[in-house]
Specification:
20 helices; 408 residues
Length: 408
């Protein structure tokens, strides 16, 4: 604890800490405001003449490029202390690239634009998480109460996107997305530079290989990826399943909104409920809740039980996300935070891509088999995440932080 105080970690609960917390919350809010609009991109592609086969390819390009570009880029900017600036400039670049869609390019043009947009845009959420983790370490902030504003923004964005497209037309979608992408850049420029969040002596020593050598960290990342990947069936076929049960599209929309609302509550209270316990326990809780959720879904439950299953999303998704972010915050030095986030994003992207692609094959064998497979995947995550070493900081210095980011 004395080390934490001497290095400046764990101080600033008020004043500068409050301002930084407000700024990072604003960054998450501004970042996720365009997500609901992004969901209509396939509709825009169809309206501008793209065939179905091309739309499928274009939507798959980001999943592939994410595996190749995110980790090296995040490591590069993290080691140089450029995370804050990289968020701003990649947001601006993404907005500029999206504007090229207004010219309604041909097949080759659409592919080029999506390739460049994927390379640039995919960095933003990863770097935002990295900056938030640095803020948690620097000012003892509550990560959940910072990240919750991203979920709130998704709710607002989904509600606003349909209205905006109905009002201004689908052809204006690129302009709407580009305008919203300016927001995270504007907020990022108002935030402190990376070096102002680094503890004294934290920028020296330690390499990315140290992260690979931290078995507990890697297993936690694998666990989080397996649990989030287990959402593949419900993401791809949930709406189809519910429609077949006679549930209206309006009710389906409300069910999806309920899952996001559960995330908001879990983000707000999760870290406080965890206290000083190992954050990997949150990941384990997410795994068990996910297995229960998929077991329920395998029975094609009625609406009342389905509501309960959707509320479990607050633990399955939020517990997992919050857990892995706190693991990184407590195990990884500040200057390697972006590197760790990049590694986590690549693992998650790989597992999610395989699980989503495989969900179609599993579904062909029957609803129950598909969901049972996802439950097994989630429980494997629990086995990986279960704490085995001496503590959260056994491999890499935690700088006196508890799991929630509060000084211990």
């Amino acid at each position: 604890m004395e080390t934490a105080r001497a290095s400046g970690v764990g101080v600033g609960v008020g004043g500068a800490g409050d301002r930084l917390g407000l700024g990072v919350s604003g960054l998450y809010l501004s970042l996720y405001l365009h997500y609901g609009f992004f969901a209509f991109l396939p509709l825009w592609l169809k309206a501008t003449g793209a065939p179905h086969e091309e739309i499928g390819v274009l939507m798959a390009i980001p999943m592939v490029l994410r595996l190749l570009t995110v980790a090296p880029f995040s490591a590069f900017v993290g080691r140089r202390g450029w995370v804050r600036n990289a968020i701003a400039y990649t947001s601006l670049a993404s907005a500029a690239i999206v504007l090229f869609l207004l010219g309604e390019p041909d097949h080759a043009g659409r592919i080029l634009i999506v390739i460049f947009l994927s390379i640039v845009w995919d960095q933003i959420p990863v770097l935002t998480d990295a900056y938030a983790v640095m803020a948690v370490r620097s000012r003892s902030l509550d990560f959940g109460r910072l990240r919750v504003w991203g979920s709130i923004a998704v709710v607002v964005s989904n509600a606003a996107a349909g209205w905006a497209i109905a009002t201004f037309g689908i052809k204006m979608l690129p302009l709407m997305i580009a305008a919203l992408l300016l927001a995270p850049a504007l907020v990022a420029f108002l935030l402190p530079a990376d070096r102002q969040l680094s503890a004294a002596g934290d920028a020296v020593g330690g390499r990315w290989r140290d992260l690979i050598g931290d078995r507990g960290l890697i297993l936690a990342m694998v666990a989080a990826s397996l649990i989030m990947g287990s959402h593949g069936v419900v993401t791809s076929f949930g709406a189809i399943q519910w429609t077949a049960q006679g549930i209206s599209t309006t009710t389906i929309g409300l069910l999806q909104a309920l899952a996001v609302a559960a995330e908001i509550g879990a983000f707000w209270f999760g870290a406080r409920l965890l206290g000083q316990r190992d954050p990997r326990l949150l990941i384990c809780a997410g795994a068990v809740a996910a297995a229960l959720r998929w077991a329920i879904m395998a029975t094609s439950p009625g609406l009342a039980v389905l509501i309960v299953a959707q509320l479990l999303n607050g633990i399955t998704a939020t517990g997992t996300i919050l857990g892995i972010m706190l693991v990184i915050a407590t195990r990884v030095p500040t200057h390697l935070s972006a590197t760790a986030q990049g590694m986590n994003a690549v693992l998650l992207g790989a597992v999610l891509a395989v699980a989503t692609a495989g969900s179609g094959l599993l579904w062909s064998y029957g609803l129950a088999i598909a969901y049972v497979a996802m439950a097994v995947l989630a429980l494997l995550g629990a086995l990986c995440a279960w704490p085995r070493d001496a503590g959260a900081g056994a491999a890499i210095n935690t700088d006196g932080l508890s799991a929630s980011g509060v000084e211990s």
